[in-house]
Design goal:
With about 300 residues, the protein is α/β, with parallel strands linked by helices. It has 15 helices and five strands. α2 packs across α3 and α6 packs across α7. This is CRAL-TRIO domain-containing protein.
């Protein structure tokens, strides 16, 4: 079915601090950058909102966003929901924006390993599906006051750790902190696994102090509910949200129903041959990949 995005006038009504003249000024700037793709007013508004209305910060974020998407097709490319690899990822890892907001008005993007077999899991595809779900939500509902990343680690086994890549982790952490148009409030993990220290050792070198300070590890559900109200969680955890299996089917249906949106996203790439000054490559953005050793696990 044709993709229907939220009306940008509704976005302005919901956030009086977001001024249409500021969005239009930012959009005019973007149109003068020969290497950037064409952006809609809604898309520009999402970036400006995520940067707390700072025009200058939004310019940097926009350039980072499209540059990372272009330079990392292994992570962000081929966003077709009918792609068998994407379908496998959607069956393996649930990615769902929970319907209820936190008391602070934040959206929660929830992760859960639905298939414990590590052979079915792909780290880059998991990131791709997370990004697809988040970007679709922003374009269908408008910018959020803030976003919390929440993961239930039950079902995560040591074999999943072996599927992680330090190079992909660095790219993901850069994207999350420097390019993705969300106001990330915290990352919360519960039912943490005995090898969580090894996962953190892979993540922490690429996390800024602000993100490190908003990283929370919860031994179990009871500990999590001291920060996240149980009511907003799925029924499986005693909450009022739909059960995990229903959320998974809705998530898959939502992705398939909005294939036109993902097709449109794929053509929004940077033309490095037209970038003012020196074109950028992977090494310019992320450093030399060859300097990273493979993750060694004791």
């Amino acid at each position: 079915m044709p993709f229907k995005e939220v009306d940008v006038s509704e976005v302005y009504r919901n956030d009086p601090s977001l001024k249409s003249e500021d969005v239009k000024s930012l959009k005019e700037w973007a149109e003068k950058q020969p290497h950037l793709p064409k952006m809609s007013e809604l898309q520009t508004a999402i970036f400006l909102s995520s940067c707390y209305y700072s025009n200058e910060l939004a310019k940097i974020t926009i350039d980072n966003f499209f540059t990372v998407k272009t330079l990392c097709p292994d992570i962000f490319g081929d966003r077709c929901p009918q792609n068998p690899a994407v379908q496998t990822s959607m069956n393996t890892l649930l990615v769902s924006i929970l319907p209820k907001l936190t008391p602070e008005g934040y959206s929660v993007i929830f992760f859960k390993m639905m298939d414990p077999n590590p052979d079915a899991y792909s780290f880059p595809l998991g990131i791709r599906c997370f990004d697809m779900a988040a970007m679709l939500h922003l374009h269908k509902n408008g910018p959020t006051k803030g976003m919390i990343i929440l993961m239930d680690m039950e079902g995560v086994v040591f074999g999943h750790l072996l599927k992680l890549s330090i190079v992909v982790m660095k790219k993901f952490m850069y994207y999350l902190q420097e390019a993705m148009p969300i106001r990330l409030q915290s990352m919360e993990f519960f039912n943490i696994v005995p090898f969580m220290d090894k996962i953190l050792a892979l993540m922490k070198p690429f996390m800024k102090k602000e993100l490190l300070n908003s990283l929370y590890l919860h031994q179990d559900l009871a500990a999590l509910c001291k920060r996240i109200p149980k009511d907003i969680l799925p029924q499986d955890y005693g909450g009022s949200c739909e059960a995990l299996e229903i959320l998974r089917e809705k998530y898959k249906g939502l992705m398939h129903d909005n294939a036109d949106f993902f097709k449109q996203e794929e053509v929004q790439v940077v033309d490095e041959s037209r970038r003012p000054g020196k074109p950028k490559n992977v090494g310019d953005v992320f450093g030399m990949e060859g300097t990273f050793k493979k993750l060694e696990v004791d």
